[in-house]
Design goal:
mainly alpha, 2 domains, 7 helices
């Protein structure tokens, strides 16, 4: 077994060699016995397995915790605030809509109709990007 195969096995089966298939386990144990780097890989994978197992352990929930959660549900501090339509909100939304429409119209007027998709690249990156794209384009749809 090579170190790459050991790494693949650690990714697949984890750092506990007893969970590996018998043939692979024997090869992995032989490799870790003769190579200190491989033994460090197995130890690191075992630590990762332990950390993940610790993270997955369920939190103990008792009646006191549930009582504290339920008691704080109605205290009024964590209520969502609904956005109510006011005159100011309608005015700002209208102004934003007008600004977007004017910007879209200006961009549409600035793009020449003859250059097609390359016009946007020319507008964003300068004329060199659109001229190179036009020179290399064979006119195909794809």
């Amino acid at each position: 077994m090579m170190k790459e195969q050991l790494e693949e096995g650690l990714d697949r089966y984890g750092g506990d060699l007893t969970r590996w298939p018998a043939a692979l386990r024997a090869e992995a144990e032989a490799l870790t016995a003769r190579d200190a780097g491989a033994a460090r890989l197995v130890a690191a994978a075992a630590r990762l397995d332990d950390t993940l197992a610790e993270a997955m352990r369920p939190m103990p929930v008792d009646a006191a915790l549930i009582g504290r959660i339920v008691a704080h549900i109605g205290d009024g501090f964590h209520h969502d605030v609904a956005v109510r339509p006011t005159g100011r909100l309608v005015a700002w939304a209208g102004a934003a809509m007008v600004a977007f429409l004017v910007t879209g119209y200006a961009a549409g007027v600035a793009l020449p109709a003859s250059q097609g998709e390359d016009a946007f690249a020319g507008l964003m990156f300068g004329n060199s990007a659109s001229s190179t794209a036009t020179d290399t384009d064979s006119g195909s749809v794809l």
